[in-house]
UniProtKB/TrEMBL annotation:
The keyword Isomerase applies. The keyword Metal-binding does not apply. It catalyses: (S)-4-amino-5-oxopentanoate = 5-aminolevulinate. It comes from Sulfoacidibacillus ferrooxidans. This is Glutamate-1-semialdehyde 2,1-aminomutase. The modification N6-(pyridoxal phosphate)lysine is found at residue 267. It is found in: Cytoplasm. Its main location: cytoplasm.
Amino acid sequence: MNTEQSSIWHERAKQVIIGGVNSPSRSFKAVGGESPITISKAQGAYLYDVDGNRYIDYLAAYGPIIAGHAHPHIVEQVNLAMSEGSLYGTPTPYETLFAERLQAVIPELERIRFVNSGTEAMMSVIRVARAYTGRSKILKFAGCYHGHADLVLVAAGSGPSSLGVPDSAGVPASVAEEVVTIPYNDVSALEAVFAARENEFSCILIEPVVGNFGIVTPDDGFLEAVRLVATQYGALLIYDEVITAFRFRFGAVQYNAVEPDLMALGKIIGGGLPIGAYGGKQAIMEQVSPLGPAYQAGTLAGNPLSMRAGMACLDVLMQPGTYEALAKKADILTKEIHAAANTYGIPHTINRYGGAFTLFFGERPVRTYQDAVHTDGKQFASFFHAMLRRNVCLAPSKYEAWFLTIAHSDDDIAHTVTAVQESMRELQSLQ
Ligand SMILES: *Cc1c(COP(=O)(O)O)cnc(C)c1O
C-alpha cells in the first residue's frame, strides 16, 4: 500500500501545526510508524486517505460517528441549518427542541446546559458540584478520561487515600492536591478514601461503563457502592457519559439503574459536530448563572448547527433495531477475532459491551487501568499496522475501542475478519 502522500502531508503539517496533529491521540506515537494516515474524505463505513486508499473505519472519530460518515439525513439537516445562519448569539428554538428530546430519553436531565466539547462539559459540571456542596475535593478513577482540564489531568498519589500528582506539565501541584484517584472496580479503596477524608469531597466522577482504558464494564455492585458512598457522605455522583450516551442504547447507559446527580454528555449527541452538554437535578443546576453564582458561558454554545446535527443523529439512532444490529455485528466480529487468535496461539482478552469492544493482547481479564497497562502494547502495535496495511483502520492505541456503526455492512465485517486472520498469522510468525 502506498501512503507517500500521507507522509508528505504530515511533514507539511509539522511545519505549522505543533506535532502535526490537533489532538495527540491522532499521532502514531503509541504504535510507531513514521506518520499517521491523512484522511481527506469519508463516506459511510469508509475513510479515504490522500493517496486514494480506502479503509474500513472502526475508529469512528473516537466515538461520535455512530451513524457512519456523511449520513444523508445529518448532511441534509446541517446544510439546511447552515443556509439559515450558523450562529445568532441569541436563544434559538433548536437548543430547546434538542434539550427536550434529550430529557425525554434521559429523565435525570431535569435541566441541561449545552457547551462545545466533553472537556468543557466536565470542567463545568465539576464547578457546579463544588458550588452546590461548598467543598473542593474530587474523587475519580484511574484510567477514566474526563477531558483535558487541569483538575482531571491528575494521576493517583502513593496510597488509596493520598492526594494526586500532576499528570501533565503545567498542572499546578495545588490543583492536583484537590484530587484523589483510586482504581476502578475497587470498593475497598473507595470505602477507605471516604473513611479517611469523610466530608471533603464535592463529587465522584466516573465513567459508568469505561471507554477510555478499553471497554470495561463495572463489576456487579460497584456502581451501587459508589452511589451509596456518595449519598452517605454528601458528595454528588457525576456520570461522565461523553462516550457512553447513545453508544449502547438509545439514551444514557443505565447500567444497573443507579442514578447519578449530574451527568456530562458529548461525542455522539453532536452527530459529528462539536458539542458537549451537562445537566441533572434541577436544584443542583440552579447553581448555574444566570440563576445562580456558578459562572459558565460560551459564544458557540448551543449553536444551531450542532443542535440540528445532534437531533438528526438521534432521528437515525431511534429507528427500531439500531442497537440490536450494532451489538450483533460486534458479536460476530469478536467471535471471529477470538477464533483467529486461538488458531494462531495469540494470547488475548476481548471486552465487549453492545456494539463496542476492545481486543487486549494478554490472557488476564481487564477490570482496572493497571490490568490494561499490563497488556502487550508491542503486539498491539504490530497488529494495528498489520490491519492498516489490509485497509482496516483501528484507533492507534491499545487503550481504545473498536466502534461498530450503522454503516458497517456484512461485507465489511467479512473483509475485516479476513484481515484479522491474516494479521494474527503475521503476529504468530513474529513470535
Ligand atoms: C472524549 C471524552 C471526553 C472529552 O471530550 P472532548 O469532546 O474530546 O473534549 C470526556 N470524557 C469522556 C468519557 C470521553 O470519552
